[in-house]
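Study this:
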Amino acid sequence: MTLTKRIIPCIDVDVDDDGTAAVYTGVNFENLRYTGDPVEMARAYNDAGADEFVFLDITASAEGRETMLDTVSAVADEVFIPLTVGGGIRTREDVKETLRAGADKVSINTAAIERPELISEGAAAFGSQCIVVSIDAKRRFDEKGEHYERVDGESCWFECTVKGGREGTGIDAIEWVAEAESRGAGELFVNSIDADGTKDGYDVPLTRAVCDAVDTPVIASSGCGGPEHAYEVFTEANADAALAASIFHFDEYSIREVKEYLDERGIPVRL
């Protein structure tokens, strides 16, 4: 039986000047602008037919603070679809508390790279289905990588970054996803620093390279500007899910419109 492809809206949440959780949208992880209230947006996407929902606390890791669990709990009360929460999750106890707050899955990036055992510990304690490893990858056009792809006529590799794309690690993303899978990751969340917020399309070479390297389900993220980009990443990279933010936040397309576009072109989706 063919598995349906998932359409997943995502909110990037930060704390505003008053200490209130708010959704922000930017380009290449920078120039963030206020977009809305996380609880209200969660409710709207649940009602709009999203397959899952992703809540990312975008500065928790960089600032060394805990995830905003009160907001997570309020969001969880509004969604009846799988909820993934990421940002600031550094220990098995953090995973436990985030799941207790209402998340169905947790997304880990910086902490997993710093201590890969966290993936194994989380999978053993709570099940692989709860552990999503997030990769914030950036193109590098030098000779320091392990796996290379042709991009615009040039050869490049993809470097894992941490702290919201602010710091490079020197780790080849394709090597890392294979390790994450072997340690028990149940899903891989592939973000492109280069494509983020551009609306020029997903980074197909990056996503395809990850999908070719693992059997674990892959969520493509960053760069979606319309239904055609979801179609492209499903057909050309074989992603299992397409995540988008701006096109939904600003009512450029509805989730229903994206799914109908895909359905008309033979992509299995839940309508």
